[in-house]
Amino acid sequence: MHWYTGNTTYDTVLTLGLVIAGLVIIGGLFQQSPYGRFGSAARGLKLNPKLGWWLMEIPATVVFVVFYLTGPRRFDVVPLVLAAIWLLHYGNRGWFFPLSIRQVPGKVGSFNVVVLAFGMVITTMHGYLNGAFFSHDYKHQYGTEWLTDPRFLVGTVVYLGGFLLLVRSESIVRNLRDKKNPGASEYKIPYGGGFRFVTSPAYLGELIAWAGFALLTWSLAGVVIFLITAGNLVPRAFATHKWYREKFSDYPAERKALIPGLI
């Protein structure tokens, strides 16, 4: 079976996505994306973190829905199941996560317009590639038998495991900051959950989730998401690990950066 779908627009965007993934992987080796603790102070207008995250992630939901609804199989069972998994992920990432951020009052330094613009391009591309692929079923693989295919079943288990690790890890970090006094201490050492083993369990959860998603959808669109995520988060996890060790003298020595017991 060919890698391409035969739809010129879709295949062009997919090829562009693979190229971007390669550039992100290469770029991540040299510099961290300037947001959060690695936020850059030299690239112009700053944004409130809540607004920045929401604007950056919202195309993944909106664009996905728009293009999903253009497909002839939009009301078929398997495309609807895949769409539900997508919307579960971005309901958390694009809506719940930004709105639940506990930030230092008045802080506007975690996002800038460069990060926002690039992030919106990526999430727009993700939304299109997956929304169109599911409801058009370009590869004619999403019949009802797909729901019992080993790739879908194993991929779904892997995805849900990663998603739960991601959500739990973000909850632990969020609750480090007191609701009544969010500015008391900007950074603390997190404990519990995946933090017993690695510095960045949320990153690990995100990577596991997208690996599972690529498997359960059996699509290059899923591979593109995984590669871009890995290119961004893997080097960021190592930089975060180094940052914690330098900032906190009592940081747990047994913790690895990203993979329990290994690295």
UniProtKB/TrEMBL annotation:
<keyword id="KW-1133">Transmembrane helix</keyword>
<dbReference type="InterPro" id="IPR016636">
    <property type="entry name" value="3-oxo-5-alpha-steroid_4-DH"/>
</dbReference>
<dbReference type="InterPro" id="IPR039357">
    <property type="entry name" value="SRD5A/TECR"/>
</dbReference>
<feature type="transmembrane region" description="Helical">
    <location>
        <begin position="149"/>
        <end position="167"/>
    </location>
</feature>
<feature type="transmembrane region" description="Helical">
    <location>
        <begin position="108"/>
        <end position="129"/>
    </location>
</feature>
<feature type="transmembrane region" description="Helical">
    <location>
        <begin position="51"/>
        <end position="71"/>
    </location>
</feature>
<feature type="transmembrane region" description="Helical">
    <location>
        <begin position="77"/>
        <end position="96"/>
    </location>
</feature>
<dbReference type="GO" id="GO:0016020">
    <property type="term" value="C:membrane"/>
</dbReference>
<dbReference type="Pfam" id="PF02544">
    <property type="entry name" value="Steroid_dh"/>
</dbReference>
<feature type="domain" description="3-oxo-5-alpha-steroid 4-dehydrogenase C-terminal">
    <location>
        <begin position="113"/>
        <end position="262"/>
    </location>
</feature>
<dbReference type="GO" id="GO:0003865">
    <property type="term" value="F:3-oxo-5-alpha-steroid 4-dehydrogenase activity"/>
</dbReference>
<feature type="transmembrane region" description="Helical">
    <location>
        <begin position="12"/>
        <end position="30"/>
    </location>
</feature>
<keyword id="KW-0472">Membrane</keyword>
<dbReference type="GO" id="GO:0008202">
    <property type="term" value="P:steroid metabolic process"/>
</dbReference>
<protein>
    <submittedName>
        <fullName>3-oxo-5-alpha-steroid 4-dehydrogenase</fullName>
    </submittedName>
</protein>
<feature type="transmembrane region" description="Helical">
    <location>
        <begin position="207"/>
        <end position="228"/>
    </location>
</feature>
<keyword id="KW-0812">Transmembrane</keyword>
<dbReference type="InterPro" id="IPR001104">
    <property type="entry name" value="3-oxo-5_a-steroid_4-DH_C"/>
</dbReference>
